[in-house]
Amino acid sequence: MLSGIQPTGSGSHLGNYLGAVRRWVAMQDGFDAFYFIPDLHAITVPQDPATLRRRTREAVAELLAAGLDPERCTVFVQSQVPEHAQLAWVLGCITGYGEASRMTQFKDKSNRAELGPATVGLFTYPVLQAADILLYQADLVPVGDDQRQHLELTRDLAQRFNARSGPTFTVPSGYVGQAGDRVMDLQDPSRKMSKSLPPAGTIYLQDDPAVLAKKIRSAVTDAGREVRADPAAKPGITNLLIIHAALSGRSVADLEQDYAGRGYGDFKRDLAEVVVEALTPFQRRLSAVLGDPTYVDQALRRGREKASEVAAGTLAAVHSAVGFLPAT
Ligand code: TYM
After folding, report:
1. pTM of the entire structure?
2. Strand order in the sheet with 2-4
């Protein structure tokens, strides 16, 4: 299995954790698991070099603090394994222009003025993502709901390549949904929680307890005062219930019953406690990991070696299937 998380913004948020990273931790034992930081993807929108470098390290540290163990899974940085860009070229040559134009993330990002004019890199981003997945012959790709379309494209490209050039790639399984795979913004529950929205609506894993409590207290709720899930009429409180359930392990129905006859205030106060309790141990481990650069360096060296070995094998098979003359 394989998955990745971008090193952008002010660190990972609760959507990244519930939609992706939490599952990665659970899956590192049953699978040959590869987790990586897609820095090639990050530069599809402008980045400051010093910040990108610092954030890439920090993103690795966040994964280790969340519970990934470099002895039990492979953690690496995408740009350190050049085969990703090499395979993306080959896959780009079997991707239709129209097919790439239909990707919603491209349409969304290319329309956002603050990101500057859309680049060719942003357009071909999903092809690079397909290369990330196919290089490791991944079967499972645990991602949040927003990555569903990219995963479908990956499956299409794998099938097309195999049909044209002979069986080369594992076709990954389709998207598997689960609770918490679409956490919404606290200030605008019609949009998914995202690193590129204002911080008041985003719960960052590194936020301190006072900030967390304030963000939850000021989360937009809906008309009425009943703590009840109803995605159409009460999207704000529904999102908060989902977050509570995902972190506390209780069901939404159980929570509704518990808060029957009590207002939003009580619920938000308890939710703040649940979030702080979940994030405090993570934050403690993160400072320990950041204080031990050798641990991070060693994890990445090992990760790069393991990833390179697998990636080189797949790329060689692809080059041979395509008809490139091998070097002597
Ligand atoms: P990224 O960095 O935007 O997000 C990392 C993971 O977090 C999930 N996620 C969410 N889940 C629930 N609710 C949310 N509000 C939320 N926001 C983000 C994402 O679905 C993702 O699983 N293109 C990818 C990175 C990537 C990748 C790959 C992933 C590059 N190559 C290959 C898997 C396989 C991205 O930008 O994720």
Report:
1. 0.95
2. 2-4, 34-37, 74-77
Residue 82 contacts residue 41 (beta carbons within 8 Å): no
Question: Ligand 1 within 6 A of 7 CB?
Answer: no
Tokens of 137: 């012959």
Region for residue 245 given its phi and psi (left: phi exceeds 0; alpha: psi -120 to 50; beta: otherwise): alpha
- Token pair, residue 231, equals 């995605």
What count of Cα atoms within 13 Å lies in the side-chain half-sphere of residue 298? 8
Closest residue to atom 9 of ligand 1, CA basis: 16
Contact indicator for 214, 203 with CB cutoff of 8 Å: no
Q: Contact at 8 Å (CB) between 62 and 35?
A: no
Asked whether the beta carbons of 87 and 318 are under 8 A apart, the reply is yes
Q: Which residue has the tokens 């094998």?
A: 313
Containing 4, the helix (H) or strand (E) segment is strand 2-4
> Is 8 near ligand 1, meaning CB less than 6 Å away?
no
pLDDT digits (tens, 9 = 90+) for 267-299: 999 999 999 999 999 999 999 999 999 999 999
Residue 5 CA to ligand 1 center (angstroms) comes to 6
Q: Determine if residue 323 is left, alpha or beta; phi over 0 gives left, psi from -120 to 50 gives alpha, anything else beta.
A: left
